[in-house]
Each structure stands twice: as C-alpha cells, then as structure tokens.
Amino acid sequence: xxxxxxxxxxxxxxxxxxxxxxxxxxxxxxxxxxxxxxxxxxxxxxxxxxxxxxxxxxxxxxxxxxxxxxxxxxxxxxxxxxxxxxxxxxxxxxxxxxxxxxxxxxxxxxxxxxxxxxxxxxxxxxxxxxxxxxxxxxxxxxxxxxxxxxxxxxxxxxxxxxxxxxxxxxxxxxxxxxxxxxxxxxxxxxxxxxxxxxxxxxxxxxxxxxxxxxxxxxxxxxxxxxxxxxxxxxxxxxxxxxxxxxxxxxxxxxxxxxxxxxxxxxxxxxxxxxxxxxxxxxxxxxxxxxxxxxxxxxxxxxxxxxxxxxxxxxxxxxxxxxxxxxxxxxxxxxxxxxxxxxxxxxxxxxxxxx
Length: 354
Hints:
Blueprint (H helix, E strand, L loop, with lengths): L12 E4 L8 E4 L4 E8 L2 E6 L10 H10 L3 E9 L1 E2 L2 E2 L1 H5 L6 H10 L3 E10 L2 E2 L5 H11 L7 E3 L2 E2 L2 H10 L7 E5 L10 E7 L2 E12 L6 E9 L5 E7 L4 H11 L42 E13 L2 E2 L3 E2 L4 E5 L22 H4 L2
Parallel strand pairs: 1-13, 8-10
Antiparallel strand pairs: 2-11, 2-12, 3-4, 3-5, 5-8, 6-7, 8-9, 12-13, 14-15, 14-17, 15-16, 17-20, 18-19
Protein name: DNA ligase (ATP)
Family: Belongs to the ATP-dependent DNA ligase family.
Keywords: Ligase
C-alpha cells in the first residue's frame, strides 16, 4: 500500500457542547464503530479509532469498499448495522469475535454498512490541510456513484435542518448532531469538532459498586431498574467521580453493604446461564477479557438520579450515566422502565436511502 496518507491514522474527534453552534457544517452523529478506510487498488485496510485493524471482522464490507470507493483514497466514516429500521450497536459488537466462522455467519445474517463523512486523501493528493468545505465537495464527487452498503452521510449548513435532525434522527438510533467549522483542517486525534448529544434523567436503584483500579475506593455504581415483572435488571453504571468523592462513597455506602450476594436480586451474576434470561452485572464479554468483573453487593434500598443519553434496545444505558443527586424521596420499587422517555420512531432508510 502506497498512499499520500498512510495508516495508522487516529480519527479527528469532537468535544461536547450543550447547543448546536451556528454557522457550521452539520451531520448526524452515528452510533457505530468509527473507522478510517484506506484503499490502494485491491488493498483495503480499515483502521479503528485506536488504529487496530477491523478488516477480519467485516469481510462483507471489504468487498463492498473495494467495489465502490475510488481506486486510491483514504475515507473517514462509521461502520453501522441496521435492524428493523434503526441502528443496532449490540449487533455491531457481536462482530468482534475470535472465530472467523462466527464472523462469517453474522456477516451474512446482519451485514454492515459504511457511512462516509470525510476524505483524507484522493489519488496522490493528501487532503489533511484542505478546508472541510472543499473536502466535503471532493467526497461527494468521489462517491457520487456509490450504492448501499457504502453511503455518504447527509450534511447541511442550515442550522434549522440540523435542529430538526437532532429531534428526528434519534428515533432511528442515531446519537445526536456533529458540527464542524467550514474551514476546519483534519487534525488526527484532536478534538476540533463539536458534538451535541441527547441527555435525559432517570431515577435508578443503586444495587452495588465496583472498586476503582487504583485501590479500595468506589470505581463505579451499579444501577438497576425494575421491569414489569418486578425483577431488578442491571441497566448500567455511573462512574465520573473525583478521587475524594470515591473515598467518601465507601463510607456512605457501608451501611448498605452485604456480606455476600446471597439474597441479592443479582445473586446469580456469576452463573453464565443466568445472563440469558436477565440483565445482571458481570455478563461474559469478549470486550472485558481478563478484567475483574467482581462487585460489592448493596441492599437495593438507595435511589439516585442519573443523566443518560439513550437506551440500547430499551434495556440498558448506551454509555456510562452521570450521577446527578441522591433521591431519598423515591422508593426503589418506583424506579421502573416506565419512567424512560421513548424516542419517536424514524426509519433509517429515510436518512440513507434503501
């Protein structure tokens, strides 16, 4: 492979802001695997956000990219999987599997797509220092004949359209809106863009905690919600605490600490079969590797309010939640899935086309 921009390249990143800034280039924020694709003739490399190769996990995309991208180019974008008219991040994570046969099966069952939104090189020309507005024009021209599963991300400079996308696209599983200055150069691993994400709050049961990697202080709180059958389901964690606060939490939570998980709603967490019928902490995962998934059980009597962006398949927080406050006025039994706001549905095909 011999390109004007060679792997590895870390993608340009975004910083969070509360509102959509005016006077910029706007795109939807895709909820998938960030990927930079390098093509030089028949050679294809797909680099992840951390620059690890994703080629072996998406064989169907390798062939599609070879057929649809320009002969020599470097393209920044997102790998996504759609099911039922919306993005499915869980289906995407299933692809990171050590068995090639399993990857092949999943590729046939739920093929992935690539959504392109930036162009880093074309033919013999590096484009990192070219303004975004010009790179976007070159991208649209270079991929003008492309068909599914390779798409060009919809974009606009109209802030009212961006605001409408922010409200509508969540129903298709998208994550918010990204804003980019029109004169922006491409800065690998630099936070030069802006992301505006949805934020909601929920009252959740604190049913345990994990210790911090640095020592005997709280690393993360384990959160639960009661389902319609009265079972407490693990829905995620909140973890953004200062070290001083982590130390204080050990003392505050001590009265609720249980000697063992016996009698706890998540007592069966260590049994792999138990995860098939309930959401419990410590679920087996190829992401966790040798990570210690043990946790300290607490009597599920304490309620806190957390901020979250959205739910994955209506079952768990897609990202780490953010602690807001304790809620002594709420009973644990009142913390149910019914309180969660459900985005209005929006078909992904209306964004990318069939």
